[in-house]
Amino acid sequence: MHLHLVRHGQDTRRGERTLTAQGLGQARAVAARFARQGVTHLRTAAQTCARQTAVEIFRATGVPPAVDDRLDEIRSGPHGDARTPGPRERLREPQCARETGGSETWNRFLERVSVCVSELCRQGGPGQHIVLVTHSGVFDALLEVLCGTGARIELAVAHTGITHWEYRPGDPAGSWLLHGHNDTTHLAPVFQQPEARAAASTGDPSCG
């Protein structure tokens, strides 16, 4: 079973967070790529920018997207709330909502991403190619879940960058094989370099 994580296209970063004109172009570019890869399943986070990206993949592949809010970014409290620690600092379950400004803890975030992927592993089979349209923090969470390092590792992920994992249970070399991370070869150079710089400079996974 192959898992293809895709970050949504560039979005407005405010309000409903819809795709910008550039983000729509990115979504169409990644959709054209998946049209040639035999996609069997498509899931998307609930936010508008993710769903819009998934719609473009649907148009190219004919595979309808299923909304799965377990693919949403880590949930934060009110924007600008000084009481809310950064995502990685929200490690333990809060004694009360005030400790995290009503936000999701990092452990809870890891748990819901892990449950989602475990479900896919149970249901999936050889030859399946599952595309997950999601947010940058989910890439970090999945790496931590699969590698179990517990270390603070943040991944640079461009808009519509692809990370490709293969699940191969029972393989003596390991159940998970990473084929590639943040692949943006489907994007035109006019998109690619600025996107890579933007992803590298994003310090808060809650930005998605």
Descriptive notes:
The chain is an alpha/beta fold and 208 residues long. It is 34% helix and 15% strand. The protein is globular, with a radius of gyration of 17 Å. Mean pLDDT is 84; it is low at 95-99 and 195-206. β2 (41-44), α2 (48-61) and β3 form a beta-alpha-beta unit.
Primary descriptors:
about 210 residues; 6 strands; about 15% strand; alpha/beta; 5 helices; 6-stranded mixed β-sheet; about 35% helix
What is the typical, i.e. mean, pLDDT?
A: 84
Distance between the termini: 26 Å
The coarse silhouette is globular
Order of helices and strands: EHEHEHEHEEH
Question: Topology, pairings included?
Answer:
Blueprint: E1 2-7, H1 21-34, E2 41-44, H2 48-61, E3 66-67, H3 106-123, E4 129-134, H4 136-147, E5 162-167, E6 176-183, H5 189-201
Parallel strand pairs: 1-4, 2-3, 2-4
Antiparallel strand pairs: 1-5, 5-6
Helix pairs in contact: 1-2, 3-4
Short description:
By secondary structure, the chain is of the alpha/beta class. It has five helices and six strands; from the N terminus they run βαβαβαβαββα. The chain has helices at about 20-35, 50-60, 105-125, 135-145, 190-200; strands spanning about 1-5, 40-45, 65, 130-135, 160-165, 175-185.
